[in-house]
From TrEMBL:
InterPro entries: YjiS-like (IPR009506)
Superkingdom assignment: Bacteria
The name this protein goes by in its record: Uncharacterized protein YjiS (DUF1127 family)
One Pfam entry name: YjiS-like
Residue stretches making up the YjiS-like domain: 5-40
Taxonomic path: Bacteria, Pseudomonadati, Pseudomonadota, Alphaproteobacteria, Hyphomicrobiales
Species annotation: Kaistia geumhonensis
Amino acid sequence: MANGIIASYKGWVKFRQTCNELNRLTNRELADLGIERSEIAKVAKRSAAY
């Protein structure tokens, strides 16, 4: 049970870090990556397997 909680927390941390990093980018930089600002959460969830 504790392992599940720890894994969930680590996934959440990775999700937040990814969201924060992508939100720091300009719209132009996001477009260069093929990401729209509205897709940041979806991309972060995929990245963190969250």
